[in-house]
Amino acid sequence: NVEAVGTPKRNIQLSNIVEEFAEGRRTSKVMHETPKKATVEEPKTPKSARGRPRKSTSTVVEEYKSTPKSATKLKLIRSGAIKPNVQARDAPVQISPDDQLAVARERLHVSAVPKSLPCREKEYSEIYNFLEGKIIDSCGGCMYVSGVPGTGKTATTTAVIRSLQVLAQEEEIPTFEFVEINGMRLTEPRQAYVHIYRQLTGKTLAWEQAYNLLDKRFTTKAPRRVTTVLLVDELDILCNRRQDVVYNLLNWPTVPSAQLVVITIANTMDLPERLLMGKISSRLGLTRLTFQPYNFRQLQEIVMARLTGTSAFDAEAVQLVARKVAAVSGDARRALDICRRATELAEEQSRKVDKFVSVSMGHVQKALGEMIASAKVQTIKCCSRMEQLFLQAVTAEVARTGIEECSFLGVYSQFEALAAFAGVTVPNPGRAIAICSRLGASRLLICENSRNDIYQKILLNISSDDVHYALQASSLI
Amino acid sequence: MDQAVQVISARYPCRKALIQKLYQLFGDGDPFPPAVYLYGHTSTGKSSILQAFLPLLDSSTTPTSWAILSAIECYTNKILFETILNRLTGHVPCAANAYASLASVDSMKDFVAQLARLSPSRSYIVVLENAERVRDMDHNVLPMLLRLPEVTGLNVCVLLVSDLPFEKYFVRTGLAPVVKLFVAEYSKKDILVILMNDFEAVREQLGMELESNKHANLSEEEIDKRLKIVEMLKPDFYENYLNIFLNVFFKVCRDLKELQLVALECFHKYCEPVLDGTIAADDVTRLWRNISKTMKLALGTIYMRMGNVNQELLRPATVDGQTSSESVEQMQTMKRLAQNLELPFYAKFLLIAAYLASHNAAKEDKRLFMKYHGKQKKRLQTVNAKAKVSEKMATQLGPKAFTIDRLLAIFYAILDEKVGLTCNLLAQISTLIHLKFLNFASGEGTIMDGSARLQCTVGMDFIVHIGKMVGFNVRQYLCDFF
């Protein structure tokens, strides 16, 4: 029984709604229609608003005037007749081609995706073969792509699709439609239907309607239907308790008339087994691809590929970045960000000495220090003396009791003893609570609300070795 | 302005330092501090001084709007924000505007936006009384209130008034700094000064009462004579009285409002012999002897605000002087309570049974309530148990929970006659629960399957009186009572 899971409870009768704008062709008619509707409705809105008497200040009057206008605008937006756009600048800032550091910085930007992704040729060809086969066979199918963040999953997939689109334009393969949704951009899993429908037709509907229309589109046979490629990024966000959205997205490809190819992307390798229901993971199939984290050679190659033609970077500087990042996560975005920061540091220096300075090991070292090193030791060093004493008291209390969680009362008695050793006057418990809450706000400690004052539980949020190290550095111990 | 401070200081004596501090913060044209936390005990004059102080600001160098509201009234954010806005702008929701507030403000964001629209040429003060309630509101309310000028760009100050020290307010994400103002308690001397201020009013009231209240047993010339004595009363006389009064009351109560009320009540009694002419106005020792008994009675009923009942109680206890009047008084009130409570006969027994079930250990039931309970072995443990200190006695530790089965068993054991277990009897148990003589310790929903546990909430004296009314000696059945 296919219908049972995904069917929404509110079933709208849509027998008379014909899918008329399926290809999004009749926009001119929409443009023509909507203003007419709006003029009909215009007198209506103030009438309904007048029912609620309000103080007639100028602001309220303004609201009245603006309501109908915005209502028509909203209608136009929902029908897809007007597109959202952003305010444009006068002219883009020009970068001189001989400013090596600026050019390098621009190329190193994470959003500047290169045409061909280095070190991902195997994955590229795998996705390419899969998609090409499905499009040529005009059948449906699923693929699951996984890998830790920053390993080029989305970039590779979209690159494949871009090249396929080029091929389709040259009429070497059948044409196909491409729809892309991202789980993180949805407020709710069911909004996925709305987004898919909007990308197919340009109209925004309520999710029930969008679901019904999509279901109709995919389950009914239509001549001259083209293949639809659906890219679902962040699949794990779409999984709620009922998992109806994921089920529908993965069930439509199994319908012969749908010609839907779904490529799902997520971070965890075992997501289908861990999170998805049996019938869903079985629909997801066994076509899977895992993107391994980059090793340092690959990271070096990625950065060098972006820097071809510039002499901004020393070779060993790039190697240092690659080795440091590969040891932690293998995230290419991280490596690129660190390189960018290093170019900024180099630029600063070159401005100071007034001649070109290439990015050297020293700059990279500094950038790594800024971006990788923990700020906690620095924070402790910059705490006031009493705060440092209080942190020390917490570590002493943890050492004394052997339990991680200690109460304020015990910490305060340690605090008194430490203050007596240090020869400073002890703040009263009220002040000590203020100190404690300051440390808690900077997340050096984890403490409760100060409402149950001396009985509040305190946890050290950093290792006690860090505290000792920082306090030794500030010569308190 | 300085003279305005003088005026308020005269109205609120012993608070000159606080008023000057407020003037420093708000009066002299500087930008206000973002937030001020004003704290001190109840009835130390925090709110009333603010109410007198804020109107003066508007006429001074900085034109100021202010809003005074209590955080208890604001049980949602919307009410809090809209009330603040309405009061700051002087907008009053009334029939003309269909009780709508200035603007519909649902969130903190809207509130800040609305505040930013206010005229920047004025200054604004928001006084939030009972500020401890702000901690129970949404998590962003307190941190945002403490930095309103920063987010609105206005010269606005939030004055939080509360009884608690500020240490109780810190939240896990930290708070902006606050100026803290402590209002100390009144000392004995301060209270004497404040109460002395009332002397003229008290004397007037005394005279008015004499004139209006035509005593049946007082003739015209008697009243005239008394009025003349009232006219002659000197501040010294009142001060002597207040000294005596404070000697008795200051140990137990420093709440000015309570002291004012009780001082007035007792003063009538204090004056009586003087008006009669039996004791001279300057004979302090005899007046003290005369009033001491009344004062001790009043001491027992302080904070109870009994009004007429209090008057009646304060009548000198001439009825029976066998024990100390205080304990007699307490016994009488408890007795009266027990007598006024009209419970059915079986309900009284049920209540007694509940008390016994709550205050006796279940293992003692066999010995206490069964006729043939076998021979009791005397063991060292029981001997030790007998030598309990008073703190460990079951009557002191508070009621224990019991099941309904045990309650009914004890009820049948202490009732001499045999009565059927009818629905009336069970309905009486539920009525006792409804009247809050019993309450659920656990298992509120499972009363029918017998796992619900009850507690008895009435005290020993009360139950002893109930026992006397039905002719049952409760103490005999309390294993811890000797």
Entry keywords:
heterodimer; A: 477 residues; alpha/beta; 5-stranded parallel β-sheet; 3-stranded antiparallel β-sheet; 21 helices; 53% helix; disordered N terminus; B: 482 residues; 8 strands; 51% helix; 9% strand
Describe the structure.
The complex is a heterodimer of chains A (477) and B (482). Chain A is of the alpha/beta class. Chain A contains 21 helices and eight strands. Chain A is 53% helix and 9% strand. Chain A has a five-stranded parallel beta sheet, with helices on both faces. Chain A has a three-stranded antiparallel beta sheet with strand order 6-8-7. With 482 residues, chain B is of the alpha/beta class. Chain B is built from 22 helices and eight strands. Chain B has helices at 2-11, 16-27, 46-59, 77-89, 108-116, 141-145, 148-152, 188-196, 199-212, 220-232, 235-249, 256-276, 284-300, 308-313, 325-340, 345-359, 365-369, 380-386, 394-397, 404-414, 423-434, 460-470, and strands at 35-40, 64-70, 123-129, 155-162, 179-183, 402-403, 438-442, 453-456. In chain B, the strands form two sheets. Chain B has a five-stranded parallel beta sheet with strand order 2-3-4-1-5, with helices on both faces. A three-stranded antiparallel beta sheet of chain B has the order 6-8-7. In chain B, helix 9 (199-212) runs antiparallel to helix 10 and helix 15 packs across helix 22 (460-470). The radius of gyration of chain B is 31 Å and the shape is extended. The model of chain B is unreliable at 316-326 (pLDDT under 50). Chain A binds chain B through residues 53-55, 59, 429-430, 433-434, 437-438, 440-442, 447-451, 453, and chain B through 91, 97-98, 100, 102-103, 135, 165-175.
Compact summary:
With 477 residues, chain A is α/β, with parallel strands linked by helices. Chain A is 53% helix and 9% strand.
Give the helices and strands of chain A as they follow along the chain.
HHHHHHEHEHHEHEHHEHHHHHHEHHEEH
Largest sheet, strands/sense/barrel of chain A = 5 strands, parallel
Shape of chain B: extended
**Cα distance, first to last residue of chain B?**
70 Å
The overall strand count of chain A is: 8
Mean pLDDT metric of chain B: 86
